[in-house]
Amino acid sequence: MKKESKTALELMRLEGICKLITDNIEKEVLENRYLRVTDKGKVDDLEKAIKQCTKSQLIDIISISHEITDDLIQKYFDNYRYGMKPGFVLNWASGFSGKTLTENSLRTDLQTQLSTYTYQEGSSYKNLKCSNVVKWNEHGIPVFEISLNYLKKHNYIDENDKFNYVYEMVECFVWVCSEKGFVAIYNMPSSVEKLIRKAFYSIYGIKIIGISLDKKILDTIFDSSNRKKVALTQLKDNPNMPQKATFSDSQFGQKETEILKDFNDGYGITSCLYDEDIKGDIVTMGVNNNKGKLYINKNVSAEQFRQWSVDTIVSIMNYYSDILSDAGVEKFHSLNLFSSNEWKRMGIAKKELLKQLALAMIKISISSIDVLPVDISALDFYKAFRNDSQYILYGNCSTCNDDVIPKCPNCSSQNLKLVGDKIVCEYCGTEHRYCVCDCGNNIFYDAIDEIIAVNIHNTLIEKIVAEIMAVDSNIHLDAKDTYVLQNGHLKHIRKDEYNVIMPQDIEEFKSLYAIDIRKDMFEEYSNDIAKMGEKCTKPSIGACNECKYNHEMETKNCILKLFTVFDEFIPQPHQGHEFGDIKLSVSVGSKSYTLQGILKSNHSKITKSSTTGKEILSQAISGLVDDRVELLAIIAPATFDVQLMENIIFISKLTKKHVVFLNNDFIFRLYALYNYKFLKVA
Fold first, then answer.
1. Measured between alpha carbons, how far is 423 from 433 in angstroms, rounded to an integer?
2. Number of neighbouring beta carbons within 10 Å of residue 484
3. Helix, strand or coil, per DSSP, at residue 194
4. What are phi and psi for residue 564, nearest 5 degrees?
5. Interhelix angle for 55-63 vs 14-24, to 10°?
6. How many CA atoms lie within 13 A of 147 on its CB side?
7. Which one of 150, 335, 345, 615 is most buried, counting C-beta atoms within 10 A?
């Protein structure tokens, strides 16, 4: 047996090796060889026994079977190489269009590039290599299959009770189709996937961008009646409905309308399962919508898997081709947008960025979608329009499988900032090449664009919308909506999915704004409030409970006490693990919310760069990413810096939460009501 055949058997799935043996060795002969290898006296069910063998035993059987040649091993390896749950993550790579690719050039370029990568001692995954590149055609569409392998670390305790590890070689593959502009990456660890993306960018200058598969796309490509399970996430803030919901039924597709009648508005599908027919075999197909990941739960032949995959991918890419085509935007290409006097001081490069953004906004409007792949670097846009945009670090955690606001690995602060092309912690000053998720997983990145989200200010959006409407007033764009550049996509967030609430719009606070604060009251209240802290000198649950009912002037020594004007509120000592100080039930219009408040006692202006500002931002991040929070209040007897407010508002847009700022004016009015309610009424 050749060395290549031994490697193929080691990499082949067990079911493939079993098939190789049972298909090519006569039953009586196989039974004798099985008994010889396993050292057993008899076997009742040979087929079952073969399936229960270890890989080592199966290879031993093959080694004494002259019927199984090297060519036969290679044939079965090729046909059963994709594993038990074959699948892939689909990516948009239009940059390959027009490029001449050959098997030789792909193999040589990748081998050269991958050989330059270095790995730390004891890395979980290492030594990624390109082993082969083959070209095949499916329905006349040329696809390059790039075979790769890497070493995966397995930790264990040896017989001497000492920690040790061993590496296993794992095969993976990538499909590249320049004609359709897609790259399909076999399901693999995110760190390995990133190396592959990095290699393509280094060699060809091509960004490989993940494709989101929303319900509209799925219902276009797949038969919705075959859907049997869906997982939903709430996109709008409705406190009376669950944040997440999962429904499963063998006949879900037929019952979907009735089952989801209360979940049509404000919910998006995050994952789902279908019954899928692959050449007469009914298999379960899974979809991870956010990652553009598709997989099936059954091992099929390579030919079946390739045909099904390419058919599915081409359908998806054709859908995206329609969206990404110039239909409806042709006129804007030929027009010299942003050429009026208003834009005359702007450079050509910045105008080109605005034009790309405008075209993307039009495509989003025409196609009625909320996420569009774009060839706009979020970092480049921020650098070009610093005064018209803001950024936040916002990465994807491979463990949580969700976008998260990362923390500093050194001090756990979420106040990370961009300094040039580097990420630095504002608290400890440490520069980092990776961040940490709340779950403890490390989030590595090769480029800032992988971990940054850029919000385009409404003032600039309004100007862009005006420019578009001047050309075609029939295009529906709301200048008050939010547009965010993130990881190769333009995200559209409708204004009703988040809200900055004004204090006077909260029903429970309206009486405060009927109070006329006179100058003499302002001076008196300023002095009194300046003496109040966030908490008293010896806070305890008992003392706080007593404080609610003790309205003597001398006991009025913390701002929390002022909120006892609301019957529901009971002051409590702040716990270190909580992000909030105040909790109240409030209503805005016809909606009810639980208000969670972050309280600071500072009475000077609170800026983004001040210690208090950093604390507020860190607590606000913790609150806004918490599914339990509906309305977050930032409270202080001070003026809030505009930059600090904008950062918090940006996070509220990304997380689709509501926020209210209760500043010195609010605290003065609250103090006035407290005096009237408890101290001046007999």
1. 7
2. 22
3. helix
4. -70, -5
5. 30
6. 14
7. 150
**pLDDT band, very low/low/confident/very high, at 504 (cuts 50, 70, 90):** very high
CA distance 370 to 380: 22
Q: Which of 90, 124, 87 is nearest to 444 (CA)?
A: 124
| Residues 626 and 594: beta-carbon distance below 8 Å | no
Phi, psi for residue 283 in degrees, rounded to 5: -120, 165
Sign of the Cα torsion 607, 610, 612, 616 reads: positive
CA–CA gap between residue 43 and residue 50 (Å, rounded): 10
359: Cα within 13 Å, side-chain hemisphere: 24
Whole-angstrom distance, CA of residue 120 vs CA of residue 402 = 27
H or E segment to which residue 286 belongs: strand 281-288
Query: Which of these, 301, 93, 350, lies nearest to 197 by C-alpha position?
Result: 93
User: Exposed, middle or buried: residue 284 (CB in 10 Å: 0-12, 13-18, 19+)?
Assistant: middle
Helices then strands, counting H and E runs in the chain, come out as 20, 28
Angle at 245 between CA 590 and CA 441, to 5 degrees: 110
- How do beta strands 434-436 and 442-444 pair? antiparallel
142 forms beta bridges with 137
Q: What is the CA radius of gyration of the chain?
A: 31
DSSP-derived pairing of the beta strands 631-635 and 591-599: parallel
Closest among 358, 623, 591 to 496, alpha carbons compared: 591
The pLDDT tens digits of the residues spanning 395-444 come to 767 666 566 677 888 888 777 888 887 888 888 888 877 788 767 777 77
Q: Which amino acid is at 498?
A: Y
Q: What is the largest CA-CA distance in the chain?
A: 105
Q: Which of 201, 188, 205 is nearest to 87 (CA)?
A: 188
DSSP assignment string, 646-660:
HHHHHHHHHHT-EEE
Which one is predicted more confidently, 453 or 627? Answer: 453
Place of tokens 């559209």: 492
Q: Could you report the per-residue pLDDT of 182-223, keeping only the tens digit for each?
A: 899 987 887 888 899 889 988 988 878 777 787 778 888 888
Cα(309)–Cα(173) distance, integer angstroms: 13
**Does pTM top 0.70 for this prediction?**
no
88 contacts 294 by C-beta, under 8 angstroms: yes
Amino acid identity for residue 359 in this structure: L
DSSP state of 678: I
Interacting residues of 640 by C-beta distance below 8 A, sequence separation 6+: 605, 606, 634, 661, 663
Cβ–Cβ < 8 Å for 459, 646: no
- Report residue 609 as tokens: 């760069």
Percent helix / strand / coil, the chain, rounded to 5: 40, 25, 35
Measured at the alpha carbon of residue 180, what is the angle toward residues 176 and 181, in degrees to the nearest 5?
60
CA distance 309 to 315: 10
d(CA 633, CA 583): 9
The pair of structure tokens assigned to 616 is 């507020």
